Amino acid sequence: MPTEIRRSVCPYDCPDTCGLLVEVEDGRAMRVSGDPEHPFTRGTLCPKMLHYEKTAHSPLRLTTPLVRIGPKGKGEFRAATWNEAVAIIAARWREIISGYGAEAILPYSYAGTMGLVHRNCGHAFFHRLGASRLDRTICSPAKEAGWKAIMGDTPSPHPDEVAESDLVILWGINAAATNIHFLHGVRETRKRGAQVWLIDTYETPTAAAADRVILSRPGSDGALALGMMHVIAREGLIDKAFVEERIQGFAELAEQILPGYPPERVSAITGVPASVIEDMARCYARAQAPFIRLGSGLSRYGNGAMTVRTICALPALVGAYGKRGGGLLASTSTGAAFAMKEVTREDFMLRPTRIVNMNRLGHALTELSDPPVKSLYVYHSNPASVTPDQNAILRGLARNDLFTVVHDRFMTDTARWADVVLPACSSLETGDVYRAYGTYCIQRAWPAIPPVGESRSNWDTFAFLAEAMGFDEPYFSQTEEEIIEHLVAIPAPMRDGIDLARFEEGKGVELPLAPDAPRTFRTPSGKVEILNHREPEPLPRHLPTHEEEGNLPLMLMTAPTLYALNASFYEQDELRERQGGMRLMVNPVEAGTRGIGDGERVIACNERGKVEFTLAVTDRVPPGVAVAEGVWWSEHAPGDRTVNALTSQRLTDRGNGSTFYDTRIEVKKAR
Ligand code: SF4
């Protein structure tokens, strides 16, 4: 059979949302490459997706339902039919509902697929069931809250505007791993003469694209922004016209807050020399159009939302929000592109049910009562690896009275603890609609290959479960194609004027963003609201992190890598090898004082757990910091735990977000 080329979309939780071309022969994906016609990603992919066919056709793919036959967690299963597996699930759920009520059932999912239908269709099923709801706040709700507090619903600038900037600040973003197409634009801008700075907690691979690297202590980025604003105000470098006409609360900031952040004090908080803070402030204020690309990691501390809010005040002082090529890109807000309520169906809930924060799954499984969680249904997520406080989660998953179902492509660390495992499709086997969050693009995809083995999509699995539970709403008897058609048929102002022909061909399509949309402030006052009385704290300031006074010496950065995305892609041997093993990076000074050396087996520990790593000694990491890149599967780890045995269930100041980076550890030689 001749090779056919089909379009698809990268489904992973990455801001770029690349367009793919899939070469298909006899129903098999033979090769995956970037779609040169995609308006933002333009034909290039990161190394993770260059061999997506190896993930789709991995020998590790689950191909039939499985039912547990051994003790919990041993990974001993027998094959079952879908009919049998679904009958077991339905029977157990009926029993649980009659004994404890449906809120004793907890769904758990996040962004294993970013496809709008398959990611969100489980909401409708669990709303209809009356199950507990999951507060899906593991990623960046504090970042959203920080932006909203000062910018309201203002959209971030288009990433291509960076071409018009003369100073680009990559603030807390390892774009070389997590936003490669934006970084490509930054490199082009730099070639034309723009300065590029990287502000981060350690020297990430993105440093190679920067003229200047500023290392700030973990959780201190808000203080750094305040120090820069102090200098800008003190030296009269503000944009007076912009400040007078378009900012609410500059006078209050200047009088009540900024005097408390002279460079010397900020230096003590951040570790950045006072002279550097002063120079940064002057260079920033003198730039014609300074552009900040803000990462998400700096929002994953106890002070995360306030940090983002404070950094977002900085461009206002110099009028950067009013200039093309200037301002701050936090995330592109494409949420209004589709009427998602048609997929999530909150109206199926008979009454508002209990909400469980996904970062506190360990607490939910071990301590929650009235009712206790008696069943956990996990889909396109792997909480035993990616969710904070791994030991608490594993204690919960080990409960013999917990009925756990996992729907996944692989035997993940979570699936090993399941009572029933269901085989899931990869994104190449399903249709869906995607919207990017690092640019203004949408794309529709159709299945490129048939399901591998007996795997089923989220949509088909929930339809099957709905039938088994006796749900007769027409919603559940639609096909995948019908729900997608329904979703794309509903008009949305954000999609007005898109190239429909391209969209229907499955090509990436730009959402038309009005040229001045990022410069038209959608706040109640119509101004940048540095002063916001709707917030518990009306003005930005530096808040301490949870671990500000912690007594362990090293702050742990659980950082991204180019070769994995959280716990995804560990099925590909080559990608694992390119990561060089599960390593903990520390500065030579920290290694020297502990008598541990490069390549040695070490144990990182705190009050929550102990994790073995291979030590990597490098001066890319400053003293006081340790870095663990990637979220490894335990089968490839040096010990029996992975990095989230060290992270905590504490939440952010706003948004109930995760605080992965607000973690202290000690490191010692493994015995
Ligand atoms: S992970 Fe990101 S950069 Fe890599 S292919 Fe997917 S969308 Fe593109």
TrEMBL record:
<dbReference type="InterPro" id="IPR006963">
    <property type="entry name" value="Mopterin_OxRdtase_4Fe-4S_dom"/>
</dbReference>
<dbReference type="GO" id="GO:0046872">
    <property type="term" value="F:metal ion binding"/>
</dbReference>
<dbReference type="Pfam" id="PF01568">
    <property type="entry name" value="Molydop_binding"/>
</dbReference>
<dbReference type="InterPro" id="IPR009010">
    <property type="entry name" value="Asp_de-COase-like_dom_sf"/>
</dbReference>
<dbReference type="InterPro" id="IPR006656">
    <property type="entry name" value="Mopterin_OxRdtase"/>
</dbReference>
<dbReference type="GO" id="GO:0016491">
    <property type="term" value="F:oxidoreductase activity"/>
</dbReference>
<comment type="similarity">
    <text>Belongs to the prokaryotic molybdopterin-containing oxidoreductase family.</text>
</comment>
<keyword id="KW-0560">Oxidoreductase</keyword>
<dbReference type="Pfam" id="PF00384">
    <property type="entry name" value="Molybdopterin"/>
</dbReference>
<dbReference type="InterPro" id="IPR037920">
    <property type="entry name" value="YoaE_C"/>
</dbReference>
<keyword id="KW-0408">Iron</keyword>
<keyword id="KW-0479">Metal-binding</keyword>
<dbReference type="Pfam" id="PF04879">
    <property type="entry name" value="Molybdop_Fe4S4"/>
</dbReference>
<dbReference type="InterPro" id="IPR006657">
    <property type="entry name" value="MoPterin_dinucl-bd_dom"/>
</dbReference>
<keyword id="KW-0500">Molybdenum</keyword>
<dbReference type="InterPro" id="IPR050612">
    <property type="entry name" value="Prok_Mopterin_Oxidored"/>
</dbReference>
<dbReference type="InterPro" id="IPR006655">
    <property type="entry name" value="Mopterin_OxRdtase_prok_CS"/>
</dbReference>
<feature type="domain" description="4Fe-4S Mo/W bis-MGD-type">
    <location>
        <begin position="3"/>
        <end position="60"/>
    </location>
</feature>
<dbReference type="GO" id="GO:0051536">
    <property type="term" value="F:iron-sulfur cluster binding"/>
</dbReference>
<protein>
    <submittedName>
        <fullName>Molybdopterin-binding iron-sulfur cluster-binding oxidoreductase MopB-3</fullName>
    </submittedName>
</protein>
<dbReference type="GO" id="GO:0043546">
    <property type="term" value="F:molybdopterin cofactor binding"/>
</dbReference>
<keyword id="KW-0411">Iron-sulfur</keyword>
